[in-house]
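User: quick one - fold this with magnesium ion bound?
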Amino acid sequence: MIGRVIKIFSDFYYVETSIGIIEAKLRTVLKKQKAQVYTGDYVKLEQLDKNSMQAFIAEIQERKTLISRPKVANVSQVIIVSALKEPDLNFEQLNRYIAHCEYHKLKPILCFNKEDIEEFDDLKARIIDIYIPLNYQVIFTSALTKTGLDQIKPILENNTSILCGASGVGKSSIINAILNTSKQRTLPVSDKTKKGVHTTRHCELIEVQKNTFIVDTPGFSHLKFDFILPSEIKNLFVEMKDYDYVCKYKDCLHINEYGCSYKEITTNMDETRFESYKKFVTEAKEYEERISKESIKDEKNTKFNQNKIMAKISHKKRAVSRKTLKQNMYKDEIE
Ligand SMILES: Nc1nc2c(ncn2[C@@H]2O[C@H](COP(=O)(O)OP(=O)(O)O)[C@@H](O)[C@H]2O)c(=O)[nH]1
Ligand SMILES: [Mg+2]
Ligand SMILES: [Zn+2]
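Assistant: Sure. Structure tokens for the protein plus magnesium ion:
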């Protein structure tokens, strides 16, 4: 039987199947292989012993996507929830989420909640001006008065959507409004797994209807770009891609390098978008510096530990450190 893991409590996996939710454990052989099962995984279940009711996960199906924070498999789209007010809309935070979606090659849908608080004419116009030309879908909602929800529902259909956004913007309220219940659906928790409440490692998949799942996330405040190279940030800004054709320099960051047509970029690109871009590049530079320092340290350690062995640095690491040198020249200008 094939099912989908909708929740994990310590060693127990809750699998949604055609006959309901089944509590399963991981087969020892998979444990020994250190197989990882994530919420959202499709798995094959079997019963080892006909007399026992315990089901086991025997196989994990190949996953289409895996996002890291939180760890959820087979998510098909991301709904980035912001509040128009309370808390105030933070464009950098929004651009950060969008860039993370681009990194994971997941489609983001921009949801601006709490539209009941006031008119927000100027703010809404500004949002539309910035994000519609970039081909992002924009939805204004109120979980309180339930406006805009009819726009979200068809988007959710046959998808696994994850709701992300800062704490307090209304993610859980939107889900509750969609589910039309006052309380989020909770799973029956057996006695032996009660302790599991505190050991939840992953998020829960909520089934809205057949084949339609949503994942609520707690708000995470910072998703720093401290894991990719500065030159990769460009790929996370759809409007930046066009400038790669305009600029004659191949590895240019288009910030204010000599000879770059960055002026054209800054006049055409929304200011908040460009500011976010620069900020993320700076974060990526910290990462680049760190890995180049580490490669130097590795080199020294190798020399020290194995006196006669010449230190070997991979081509990749060499390239990085040369690049860092070059980019440090721009650093002052960027900051
Ligand atoms: N005025 C207004 N308040 C809302 C709306 N949605 C959520 N809230 C309130 O905002 C607070 C945070 O909501 P919650 O759903 O817990 O946010 P989450 O942290 O993103 O899950 C709660 O006090 C909600 O009642 C909305 O559309 N309008
Ligand atoms: Mg919440
Ligand atoms: Zn350039």
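One thing worth noting: The pocket of guanosine-5'-diphosphate (ligand 1) is lined by residues 113-114, 116-117, 142-144, 167-173, 219 (CB under 6 Å).
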